Amino acid sequence: VVGAQSSGAKIVGFNCDAFTSYGKEQSHNAPVSDAAAFRYCTALNALLSGPKSRRHRFGLADTTIVFWTGETIRVGASTAEDWFSDMFSGNLPAEDAQDKAKFDDVMILLRALREGGNALKNSEIDAGVPVYLLGLAPNASRLAVRFWHSETIGGFFDNLKCHFDDLRMVREFQEGAKTPDREFPGPRMLLRETAREPKDISPLLEGALMRAILNRTPYPDALAAAIVRRIRADRRISYLRAATLKAWWIRKHSTQGKLSVSLDTKRPEPAYRLGRLFAALEKTQQDALGDVNASVRDKFYSAASATPAVVFPRILRNYQHHLGKLSVGARIHRETLIQEIFGDLDAMPNHLNLEDQALFAIGYYHQRKDLFTKKADKPNTTESE
């Protein structure tokens, strides 16, 4: 287990009176026979560091997750174990790797899963095979159980499909790019977006995220809050951050309909429209002035996404100056876009809460992606700064 003592760690122990009951001491509080203790310790050590540990173990930040199927003799149980680590860790092998066949198999399964229907129908996996996942984290000389989950493979894939459906987002960098965005990012990649350094990822967030994925429950509010904080700190609204905020928002508002994968010009929420507006204003500055030392996003994103009524009037004044530097055709195109965004925006709110800030970021990402995708509509400047 990552972070645990190299000399070994206990999964059961009683070193304080508060952990004991009825005056019992040590193992008498949780009686397990010597034979049973030997079996579960040997099995756990094999899953963690045995010759086939790669197919049974993956890590997040300080949480190590082990998984196994309950009936290895059933059809596909071994195949399922081979795939779990790749699907959850996000470490799918590169297409030019030696195990390209495995890569292709996993991608076929994941895409079938996303598109609906019975993803296991044409695979070797028996949907009735039981699967178990155990999350462990270091805690001084002992191990803490972050989560425990048991399910059939069929149920596991149903929950995984829901997770990837909620997470699905138009990618900033598609296939063919130097470093394309992952089509199916693993939990570790999502958690990495919540902190500046991996060591700063909240340990509690790891277990909460995994429980949400495995049980198809709402993602923790702390996940969205951490990503919003990172966006406000570095003003970077990436594919992974936007996708995670989208998934969180969908499960929190399950009765209010889905958020779209890409730009939705009919979306009425003020926060979403303000995010779109901010992206359009930023693109206008970029088209007019090119690369500058401090862009609209650098200067104003943090404040605009929290207190729009205070900040947007100033950005709109600058926009008029930037608009004048565009060609006539580009100016008309951009004004039409701004008017469309403003169409159903009655008034700018004074304050945006966490849910609204998430929508702001998603609206910004959608609109910016759309603007950069439509290269034929890219404005030309008539003068330089």
Task: Give an overview of the whole structure.
The model is unreliable at 94-98 and 376-385 (pLDDT under 50). The chain is α+β, with helices and mostly antiparallel strands and 385 residues long. The chain contains 13 helices and four strands. It has two domains: 60-134 and 150-260, no CATH class; 270-377, no CATH class. Strands 1-2-3-4 form a four-stranded antiparallel beta sheet, with helices on both faces. Helix 8 crosses helix 13.
Question: What percentage of the residues does DSSP assign to strands (E)?
Answer: 5-15%
General shape = elongated
Overall mean pLDDT score?
83
Q: How many helices?
A: 13
Q: How many separate domains?
A: 2
Low confidence ranges: 94-98, 376-385
- Secondary-structure element order, as H and E? HEEHHEEHHHHHHHHHH
* Overall strand count: 4
Give the biggest beta sheet: 4 strands, antiparallel
Query: What structural class results from the helix and strand content?
Result: alpha+beta
User: For the CA atoms, what is the radius of gyration?
Assistant: 25 Å
N-to-C CA distance: 57 Å
How is the largest sheet built, in terms of strand order? 1-2-3-4
Measured as a percent range, the helix fraction is: 40-55%
Structure described in brief:
The chain is an alpha+beta fold. The protein has two domains: 60-134 and 150-260, no CATH class; 270-377, no CATH class.
